[in-house]
Amino acid sequence: MDINDKKLQVSAIENGTVIDHVPASNLFKVIDILGLDKIKSQITFGTNLESKRLGNKAIIKLADVFFMDEEINKIALVAPEAKLNIIKNYKVVEKKIVEVPDSIVGIAKCGNPKCVTNIENIITRFQVVSKKKVALKCHYCEKITDSEHMEIF
Amino acid sequence: MKNKHLVSITDFTKDEIFRILELAAEFEKNPSQNLLAGKVIATLFFEPSTRTRLSFESAISRLGGKYIGFTDASSSSVSKGESIKDTIMTVANYSDMIIMRHPVEGSARWASEVSRVPVINAGDGANQHPTQTLLDLYTIKQTQGTLDNLNLFFVGDLKYGRTVHSLLQAMSMFNTTFHFISPVELQIPKEYKIYLDKLGLKYYEYRDFSEIANDADIIYMTRIQRERFSDPMEYEKTKNSYVLKNSMLDNTRPNMKVLHPLPRVNEIHTDVDDNEKAYYFTQALNGVFTRQAIMTYILGLKK
């Protein structure tokens, strides 16, 4: 048994999903995006945990919750390096990396106040023009919204 | 069949751009053709734009078509709070094509998605104005015989001027060398410099506009607008520093032409008008031919 297995056992879940490597500052955004405040399952989360890569990370453990890839993509905007461990019968059966998709539909708000999506009831659409430091080009107004000015619905 | 729209200059491939320029040349030779007979074209100007609207309406009339529409939002149901979507979906029932000018950025793309007839963007806020870009390209090709390897000078408001941004995007396909002359407050946005860097195209920036344009093939003048300045003192200081005067054209190349999307205020001195290098009024005339080309192409009347 390696160290990873031991760590997971601390508050082990029988079945569910562990979302790791969430930037601590964006934990509550992740909770919000995935609607975790509205689900009934057992959730434990830790934040301000030490992480070599992120400085401060957060981790979320969700009992009996599994995500579709489409849902996971949503958190890529606020937790681009998040990793998902899918747990079945106390074992990690699958690991998923959250990847910033090539295009984003809904989720983010266009940063341009003069954009039609901020004026009429339109589902936003973006082309991802930079994945590392996420930057989105609006399908409508063609302006770029960078990660600092990004608002998530 | 999926509708063809023209919302952004990037909606057209290079081949399509060339085709539009060819068609525009045909319309220049023979502007009165009955190609739009029986067609109704909607010209929806949610904000006033006399030149663009008249140019479109002239193009439609010379092709034997009819147009319906409004010239500013206050004379339409928009003033009652109707959404863009509802206006477009309604007007699409009355017309074969929609020409639309709207102050909101992205409104034309949105309109093209809800309309069952083709939409041509006649300007959506600071975003795109592709028919202006195509008429600029036509004018450049007409005066220079080519679009390749030219020295293009942009002068004035390079920050907010959408005609500058769209023309830059289009001309970047033709190995253009760009020269940007503007005050600091209105300099070309960084994203366009990154864009040109990526393409490996040369560009130069200047703050002073006096005798630097001697190797220009095209000088593209734009209007510096008072409302762009947070400090009115700064505007007063700046506005006269980017004025083109006739004496400045003495040592310019013989093939050089001065273009301007119009309206002009004082940025081109009227003493330039009689110089054969002044080309902005012919440029405006080219707008009619280019729009004839675009409309007949979009409607599939010209292939």
Q: Would you write up a description of this structure?
A:
The complex is a heterodimer of chains A (153) and B (303). With 153 residues, chain A is of the alpha+beta class. Chain A is built from 3 helices and 11 strands; from the N terminus they run αβαββαββββββββ. In chain A, the strands form 3 sheets. Chain A has a 5-stranded antiparallel beta sheet, with no helix packed on it. In chain A, strands 6-8-9-10 form a 4-stranded antiparallel beta sheet, with no helix packed on it. A two-stranded antiparallel ribbon of chain A has the order 7-11. In chain A, strand 4 and strand 5 (91-97) form a beta hairpin. The longest helix of chain A is centred in the first third of the chain and has 8 residues, at 3-10. The N and C termini of chain A lie far apart (42 Å). Chain B is an alpha/beta fold and 303 residues long. Helix content of chain B is 35%, strand content 15%. Chain B has helices at residues 14-29, 50-62, 84-91, 107-114, 130-144, 162-171, 190-199, 232-239, 280-298, and strands at 40-45, 66-70, 97-102, 119-124, 151-155, 177-181, 203-206, 218-221, 257-259. In chain B, the strands form 2 sheets. Chain B has a 5-stranded parallel beta sheet with strand order 7-6-5-8-9. In chain B, helix 2 (50-62) links the parallel strand 1 and strand 2. In chain B, helix 1 (14-29) crosses helix 5, helix 3 crosses helix 4 and helix 5 packs across helix 6 (162-171). The radius of gyration of chain B is 19 Å and the shape is globular. The two termini of chain B are 15 Å apart. At the A-B interface, loops of A face helix 4 of B.
